[in-house]
Amino acid sequence: xxxxxxxxxxxxxxxxxxxxxxxxxxxxxxxxxxxxxxxxxxxxxxxxxxxxxxxxxxxxxxxxxxxxxxxxxxxxxxxxxxxxxxxxxxxxxxxxxxxxxxxxxxxxxxxxxxxxxxxxxxxxxxxxxxxxxxxxxxxxxxxxxxxxxxxxxxxxxxxxxxxxxxxxxxxxxxxxxxxxxxxxxxxxxxxxxxxxxxxxxxxxxxxxxxxxxxxxxxxxxxxxxxxxxxxxxxxxxxxxxxxxxxxxxxxxxxxxxxxxxxxxxxxxxxxxxxxxxxxxxxxxxxxxxxxxxxxxxxxxxxxxxxxxxxxxxxxxxxxxxxxxxxxxxxxxxxxxxxxxxxxxxxxxxxxxxxxxxxxxxxxxxxxxxxxxxxxxxxxxxxxxxxxxxxxxxxxxxxxxxxxxxxxxxxxxxxxxxxxxxxxxxxxxxxxxxxxxxxxxxxxxxxxxxxxxxxxxxxxxxxxxxxxxxxxxxxxxxxxxxxxxxxxxxxxxxxxxxxxxxxxxxxxxxxxxxxxxxxxxxxxxxxxxxxxxxxxxxxxxxxxxxxxxxxxxxxxxxxxxxxxxxxxxxxxxxxxxxxxxxxxxxxxxxxxxxxxxxxxxxxxxxxxxxxxxxxxxxxxxxxxxxxxxxxxxxxxxxxxxxxxxxxxxxxxxxxxxxxxxxxxxxxxxxxxxxxxxxxxxxxxxxxxxxxxxxxxxxxxxxxxxxxxxxxxxxxxxxxxxxxxxxxxxxxxxxxxxxxxxxxxxxxxxxxxxxxxxxxxxxxxxx
Length: 765
Prior knowledge:
mainly beta; Immunoglobulin-like; five-stranded mixed sheet; elongated
């Protein structure tokens, strides 16, 4: 037997669901002492769909009085009654007349004077939108006989409650304007045979939400109103659903009954394209219109389901808790009605498909569910499988099975990140040092695996964290002069697994492009062997360690540059740079003068003041003044046009001697311009003979439009790019037979050669 129900729908569908709770009075039978008579008073919560739906403070009783009338006149007021628990007792001194009980209101009256007919016309007035949460009850005492009489009386709530529900299966909802308009502020204290309102009652609008304080979720008890017969009552609502704005002006039921819950439901069915605005009345009186039995919602049938390890059915059988790992399962759902699965929220990353039944529907349906692995850092997700009952037009919020997907207890921070369904992270560039930090539960460990033939370019560095957890820094390494560092893709698989037995593997791939420049070590610095060329930031334009011409020739760079064809020498020698573009300028024959093509004397950005890595490929940088000083900064002049040895002003870790050789090229030309006596200088520490010397070469600086790169009768006044926020640097000034090292950073417009160094790296393999 369904209880009497009315439903009003505001489209999208935006609906007003009326759920009568005329059965929410309940009585308790109590025994009394022999020879006494008493009134047993009880009250109950609001009910929705036949079930209690209490909200905090709704059932509170702060005052309680009884009023006995005989022959139409008030004879006695019983006060005060003790208040406590869910039932109240009133000893009766006379079993005649009519007894009225009122909670939370104290109407004006006088014993022996107040007439019952006037009493029943008592009017209440709301105080600034706040109606009193009062209860009334009535008992006929006449004819009650016996030594021990217990008279039950059930209090009836005097107000109605409005709830607001949002039924939008997917996306976001924001109700920015919401008002119930023309709400009556006055009502009769006692119910009548029909819903009625006092003559000329005052009405006002009640604001529920504004753009500054929008509603975004279900809200119970948004408004309490007096019982009223009010054809002017309406709701005004403006909502944004998935970025689209909808507005509604909809009349509410003209009769609002006390002791009743009304639900205003904003609904957008997933199968609808746009909004609709309709009002329908369902189940009037004892009609047999079809609507669902919401007291029997769908439930999980654990016995008929195929659940994986770690999955748990909730105590109420209305949901399943799933582990963070990958899951494939069969969920059996029991329901009296056949169910149609609605589209699942895509953000939950679930695949759900109904499994075909065999024969007639027998109260159970099965669904295959696939869930991917949640990677480290993925928080828990709660999602709903929503159903429409076969033959029903609308979707009800009760028809749902909740899936709670556990988050991964491991965490990941840093540049390395994974997402649900994406367990490979490709930097698609060269990168080294720390990629990320995994923080794992104590029972987990992190390992790294490679395909056959791949280098061990990843190092896992354990670090200390709080007790109960372990952490690993993931370090990408670098190999000096790696002959395979041609830009190929390097990959590794990071595996999280149980420390005890290696089970429950989670695999995550990390990749990078492996590039490297030829280098040599001197006094703690890995210096690049060649000057930058072309686009200084691009590995593709540089001499790579996989294609080092000197290595291929079996020579040092000094030997190679001294003996290679002039065209090969010129291609390495001709590059210089200005400003922050990183675009190399090439020496050309400009009307008989060797000059840099594209030179601009108005450049204002000083290369030396840029960040160290501003012009370099990933993992490399301009050497600092301190780096250069480990080779150049001597106690006396360093005359580089001669072979010799100089002593460092500040020895590096006790090593102070630097040896040098110089050589000239006289066979290089550009266009019709000869470029004679181009200098090459190699320098090394005699304390580290195992390392190849650093070889210096390059085009002289250009600082005006007229001279090009020709100064003092030669092309060897080289200005080096040096990282120096102060703008200092190193320069080779002087005539061709008097060249020396000099601290001079030059001006912003002056071009310079760029010789990079390897940036600091934690792991070398």
